[in-house]
Write a structure and sequence with these properties.
This protein is 77% helix and 0% strand. It has 5 helices and no strands.
Amino acid sequence: MRESYVHGHHGTESVVHGYNQASRVVVAAAVIMVSVFAGFIFAHDIMIKQIGFTLAIGILIDAFIVRMALVPAVMAIFGDKAWWLPKWLDRLLPNLDVEGDKLIAQLKDQESTSNIKSSSRKAY
């Protein structure tokens, strides 16, 4: 959802677009983790059974209720304000470019600068 917001979608549109992109990953990860933890339910030790069951239920609640219902609903309510940071905190936090957008923009700038220099040389 953050990437969608950064790429120009605002308000509820960023939540919907981000949800469409991330929902498949969340469901797949939840299914895998629930399967692994539910496998411990068939163990002979009662403590291992309890831990496996509890972790499986916890993952189900986290993935489907919290991550796929509550968080997107709250973010849709807040809209663009969901991404607001105080200026002092924004200065302290590192500005990570996970997707490489800044690198791509920098490479395009270098390419356009080199094209301008080469075209100006041809003009003389």
